[in-house]
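Reviewers of the previous submission asked for a worked example of the structure-prediction workflow described in the proposal, so we include one complete record here. The input consisted solely of the amino acid sequence. No template or homolog information was supplied to the procedure at any stage.
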Amino acid sequence: MRLPRLAILAVLTALPLAGCDVGDEDASPQLGARGDEENAAEKLGFPASATRNTTRVGGGDAVADTAGVVAAVYPASGDSDRPPAVAFVDRADWQAGIAAAALQAPPVGVPALLTDGGEVPEVTADVLARLDPQGSDLSRDAQVIRIGEKPPAPAGRKTAVIRGKDPYELAAAIDRYSTVARGAPSDHVVIASGERPEFAMPAAPWAARSGDSVLFVQRDRVPAATLTALRRRKKTDLYLLGPESVVSERTAKALGRFGRVRRIEGATPVQNAVAFARYERSGFGWGYTVPGYNFTLASTSRPADAVAAAPLGANGVFAPLLLTDDPQRLPRSVESYLLDVQPGFERDDPSSAVYNRVWILGDDKAISVAAQARADAVTTLVPVRTRQP
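From that input alone, the workflow returned the following structure tokens.
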């Protein structure tokens, strides 16, 4: 199910574009701009806020992007569209944010918001207040689940803490927490680099969709915490995200003691993300090789935007994360992939066609309006001429 386009834009009207500060009264887009007002076109915010086939969550940082996505996915108009709890993740702990994405999947259903050291940023506090989570049995009645020791406990909210001394222990603790909540381990495990965030980022939306745990390794070593987490489960399929230059074959062989290891790889982070979007095997992976889907596009320069991408991997959007390493241009491999799955219609009748849509994360310093326009062009519904017999 796709979110109605006008509903999306209404939710996003409070978000900044082009690096504006959250809460700035002059930030675009704005509701109610009139045709005779000065700078009315700028206040409307187009084409940066949205085009035919793109929607931008235009935060100046990952904190704002994450708050904006959570606000869009959870309008909080009643009990049915607000989460039972939220997770707090420090903006610098990208590994924790990626691993915590698994908590968004059923039955836990907990999205993450970002904190900053010992502070709760204003935009995070505002979204938390609007969501007003009430806790549930699966969140142990906590309204806020702190991932690690860095995020502060917000005043007036019951909290729980998932602890770990380092990113590897913390990911293993999240795996243990979600296993207890579900009553069983996840069907599969994603193995990602704990050293190269640009190769690990695409794991977050998949974890949010599937509930599959994400555990981290180093290039030439499987940390003790990851080994312990794998020993707790029966042999299962392990999906290794990244090429040998990121996670060596030696590490892959060490993982093979715990299950069948399948590597999903691209030579660069951008190509790696495309490979994951295409991949499907034995009930694992997106398998997006035909038209009719949502996608998210984020910059490799903002690892914490993986946390923002996670809610878009679930919650009726089901968008895999594509990446760009060029703020000015859409990478060729992303463009080629989107052209491969570009939707079309036959016989001048688009009424029964399917559509693609791309969510853009970040302001124009992360992803330019020109790159957004190109993403729009290669996801536009086009007529297809078939040969007549």
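The chain has a mean pLDDT of 91. We consider this example representative of the routine output the project will generate in years two and three.
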